[in-house]
Amino acid sequence: MKYIPYLFSLLLLFSCGSEPEVTEEKLTDNFSISGSIIGAENMSVTLEALSQNGSIEVAQGKIAANGSFNIKGNIPGMGIYQLRIGESNDKVIPLTLVEKDNVKIKTTYNDYMLTPNVSGTEWSSTLNEYMVLFATFAVGQQQLNAMQGKCSEDELMVKYLSIKKPLDDFSREKMTNDPDNPFNIILSTAATPTSGFKDWDPKNLDVLKVVSDAYNKRYKGSPIAATMENQLMQIESAYNEYLVAESGNQAGTTNESNMAPEIAMKNPEGKVIKLSSLRGKVVLLDFWASWCGPCRRESPNVVRLYKQYKDKGFSVFSVSLDEDAASWKQAIAKDGLIWPNHVSDLMGWKTPMTQLYQFESIPHTVLIDKEGKIIATGLRGESLEQKLKEIFSK
Description:
Elements: H1 6-14, E1 31-38, E2 44-51, E3 54-62, E4 68-73, E5 81-85, E6 92-95, E7 102-108, E8 118-119, H2 124-146, H3 153-177, H4 184-187, H5 203-218, H6 223-251, E9 264-266, E10 272-274, E11 282-288, H7 293-309, E12 314-320, H8 325-334, E13 342-343, H9 353-356, E14 364-368, E15 374-377, H10 381-392
Parallel strand pairs: 1-7, 11-12, 12-13
Antiparallel strand pairs: 1-4, 2-3, 2-5, 5-6, 7-8, 9-10, 11-14, 14-15
């Protein structure tokens, strides 16, 4: 339970894997940050964007002898940034900047991480309240670190959840009451499982869904809205997998009799489709990609079997490991994959599906019965045909 700086953990959650595009063109300033930080005279103040490869400088200035500063720059859109004083990792606060934000800060060097007194934006007051609560949580977490080896892991976890509760309660309340607030990018970490699902409240899924829906409406098409939605779907799928494993352990069942973990992804038109929506049908869950030769060669067989058994309660749920949407859509059309259930997160081999369904190559198929339980895996060609014949001849 080692203490991890919160900005680093947020970076892991919300980095989208791409960095701001480098351009020689002078971009128009679309934000400003100004104010006074007494005690930090003549030190640098730097706004940084976060990426998986580290922080990237967006704008920098110098704090004047009277403590005042003013920096401007250009951001590509709403996201998590951090404002650093000097070179220290101990003097950094998060800013969920939106284009045209004019941020004001009035504080001291010593109080910077506790009471930055940010104003001028819709998310300012939430940030200020959050920083006070987080400071208390951070002190408590450091005390827990000092107790390592003196208490059992279970005792430490109980104490950890106790000191984290005020921060989590605050975050969930704010997200519920103001779901499209930019600062919810940070608050959403309170609703995500940090140490497995054992002590995690599934009501957090409802909170995350409210925020994701609000972001998709207000920031439609933005990387942050997409990341929030992907995070929600991944947590939901992982939680369902956890429930399946727990029920299997309690009942002493085998993997073959377990429920198929939930999948919720977008189809080519951008609508989220769930695997569970096909409950009541025998489903072939087919992991494939447009660039996969064996997958494409198997397509005519799957199309033939779909036509043969679709009126008897058979369907196909195709999950593509493509990264390029155009190639994915073209392959669906070219191969005549006429069933309606095509989904992809366009993450390629980075998709969480490889872990959720435990496969390392494609094509990979999972046959699911009408109750949602896995019947068999890896069926193709004649073996798939024989299994469907067996099922539908009863």
